[in-house]
Specification:
The protein contains five helices and four strands. The chain has 190 residues and is mostly helical. Pfam families: Retrotran_gag_2.
C-alpha cells in the first residue's frame, strides 16, 4: 500500500484504490469438532474500492452503479438497511453491562462500510453527511437527496435519444452522438 492519503486519512494505494485493510478468511485447515461450540460471529470483510467516480451532486446513479455491485458481491448490502437491535447482558464475572457480540460485529463491519462510502464522496458531499453515523443512515440520506435529480437526468437523456435526428450531420457524427447518449445511459444504470 502506498503512503499517500487523502484529507480524511483513508489509505489509498498507488493505483488510486481505497484500501480499508485485508480480507480475513474464516477458513480452517481442519474441520471443526462437532462437540465444540463454534464462533457464530461472521468474519469481518475488508473492502478495496477502485475510486473511478467520486460522488458529486450530478452523478448519483453513476456512483451508485459502482457501489451497489461491490456491496452485493461481498454480501454486505443488508448493512444499508436498518441495523439490528443492540442488546446488553450482564457479565457474570464483572457484573458490568456488555453489548451483544453479534451487534458489536455488525457495528464494526458497518463502520468499515461507512468509511468506504465516505471515502468515495466529493468533499462537497462529505460536508453534508458528517452527521450520518451508520452506512444505512448515509445511504438513505444520499438516496433521498439525490435520486430525484438523477431521475431527471435519466429522463432528459432518454428524451435526447428519442429526439435525435441526423439533420445535416454525417452518418458517423450522428452515430457517435447516439453512442455517446447510449453510453451515458448505460453508465448511470439505465
Amino acid at each position: 500500500m502506498a503512503a499517500s492519503s487523502s484529507s480524511s486519512d483513508i489509505p489509498i494505494n498507488s493505483s488510486g484504490d481505497i484500501n480499508l485493510g485485508m480480507r480475513i478468511s474464516n477458513s480452517r485447515s481442519t474441520p471443526p469438532n462437532p462437540t465444540t461450540p463454534t464462533d457464530t460471529t461472521p468474519p469481518m470483510v475488508f473492502l478495496t474500492l477502485p475510486v473511478h467516480t467520486k460522488f458529486s451532486r450530478t452523478n448519483f446513479l453513476a456512483w451508485k452503479s459502482q457501489i451497489e455491485p461491490l456491496l452485493h458481491a461481498y454480501g454486505l448490502s443488508s448493512f444499508l438497511t436498518d441495523p439490528p437491535s443492540s442488546s446488553t447482558s450482564i457479565d457474570p464475572l464483572t457484573g458490568q453491562a456488555q453489548l451483544d457480540s453479534t451487534f458489536l460485529a455488525w457495528y464494526k463491519q458497518d463502520q468499515m462500510i461507512l468509511a468506504l462510502l465516505r471515502a468515495s464522496l466529493s468533499e462537497q458531499i462529505l460536508a453534508q453527511v458528517v452527521s450520518c453515523s451508520t452506512s444505512g443512515d448515509l445511504w438513505r440520506y444520499l438516496t433521498h437527496t439525490f435520486s430525484s435529480s438523477s431521475r431527471a437526468l435519466l429522463t432528459d437523456l432518454k428524451k435526447k435519444l428519442q429526439n435525435s435526428t441526423k439533420g445535416g450531420a454525417s452518418c458517423t457524427d450522428f452515430i457517435n452522438q447516439i453512442r455517446a447518449i447510449s453510453d451515458e445511459l448505460a453508465f448511470i444504470g439505465a
